[in-house]
Amino acid sequence: MFESLSERLGGVFERLTKQGALSEDDVRTALREVRVALLEADVSLPVARDFVARVQEKATGQSVTRSVTPGQQVVKIVNDELTATLRGEGDPGALKIDSPPAPILMVGLQGGGKTTTTAKIAKRLAERERKRVLMASLDTNRPAAMEQLAILGQQIGVDTLPIVPGETPVQIARRAKAQAALAGYDVYMLDTAGRLSIDEELMAQVEAVRDVASPRETLLVVDGLTGQDAVTTAENFDERIGITGVVLTRMDGDGRGGAALSMRAVTGKPIRFVGTGEKLDALETFEPERIAGRILG
Ligand code: GDP
Question: Using the 8-state DSSP alphabet, how is residue 282 labeled?
Fold first, then answer.
């Protein structure tokens, strides 16, 4: 197990007094530990450095009351700053799905959890918001992926667009749009094809689909355990396609969630949900406090 930040800082500040203000030196010593904790949690180096510099500025000169130790004080400042950085604007769980049929475009690399997350979000919208949802798989390269979405749809009682062999992703997107309008769905979700890595063909395809659908939300699904790779993927998709939010999957794993901080710092896009398991109700609205606690250990 990792040593928690409080434990680390407890040691650092053992010999310091309980009163007075935090000196620049005190803070610098403490923040060395903070930086190590962030790096251990898989936060990228530039992001960790920048974060620590901000905390240094905020913490220096802050008075420490009798009731807390300087260590606790620094932990609180770090925690507040971490939470503020992780928090996007508005409610992460509130998807823009007014003016039906509202299109949601799901993008990401293969294996990141895109199809599963599509079904999880559909289930949530159907159950919690009583929305009529239509899901469509655009993964024409992998018939198994199209089947997978149909099966998930049956499991959660959400309709999927019937599969018509031979159609292109753009044709499927057009059909989903027309069907959603005709049959009065509130939302239609397009589960785009994934690739093992980002390539021009994938991006051109997703772009063409985006232009057909004009999505209200474009959610990037990435494996939260892949750290810096997840951040690079997000940068690439955002630059080319424009994303409105991120879903981090596999947050039930051992990862410390540092990717979340790097993701926010680098892309500026809000994290909307986290996937916490394979089951179709294992999806939680992103809570900055929770991830902050996990990063700090
Ligand atoms: P896609 O290729 O991006 O569509 O990925 P899939 O949706 O097919 O998911 C790949 C695998 O990851 C499947 O076995 C899913 O059950 C699993 N998976 C997806 N999300 C999560 C998650 O949040 N936690 C865990 N533990 N597994 C997940």
Answer: -
Which residues contact residue 151 at a Cβ distance below 8 angstroms, ignoring those fewer than 6 apart? none
- Please enumerate in sequence order all residues whose Cβ is within 8 A of that of 45, keeping only pairs 6 or more positions apart, or say none: 39
Q: Give the model's pLDDT for residue 62.
A: 78
H/E stretch holding 137: strand 133-137
Residues 6+ apart with CB under 8 A from 7: none
What pLDDT was estimated at residue 106? 98
Q: What is the ipTM of this complex?
A: 0.99
Nearest to 36 by CA among 49, 27, 20: 49
Query: What is the reported pLDDT for 37?
Result: 84
Determine if ligand 1 sits within 6 Å of the CB of residue 252: yes
The per-residue pLDDT for range 89-108, each reduced to its tens digit, is: 889 999 999 889 999 999 99
Q: In what order do the strands lie in the sheet with 217-223?
A: 159-160, 133-137, 187-191, 102-107, 217-223, 245-249, 271-275, 283-285
Q: Whose CA is nearest to atom 16 of ligand 1?
A: 278
Per the document, the length of the chain is 297
- Binding residues for GTP, by number, are 108-115, 191-195, 249-252
Query: Does residue 107 sit in helix, strand or coil?
Result: strand
Residue nearest to atom 28 of ligand 1 (CA): 278
| pTM, two decimal places | 0.92
Ranges of the chain whose pLDDT falls below 50: 1, 18-19
Of 99, 102, 116, which is closest to residue 188 (Cα–Cα)? 102
Q: What is the DSSP string of 179-248?
A: HHHHTT-SEEEEE----SS--HHHHHHHHHHHHHH--SEEEEEEEGGGTHHHHHHHHHHHHHT--SEEEE
DSSP annotation of 159 reads E
pLDDT tens for 223-262 read 988 888 899 999 999 999 999 999 999 998 877 788 899 8
Pocket of ligand 1 contains residue 112 by CB under 6 Å: yes
The protein residue with its alpha carbon nearest to ligand 1, atom 19, reads 113
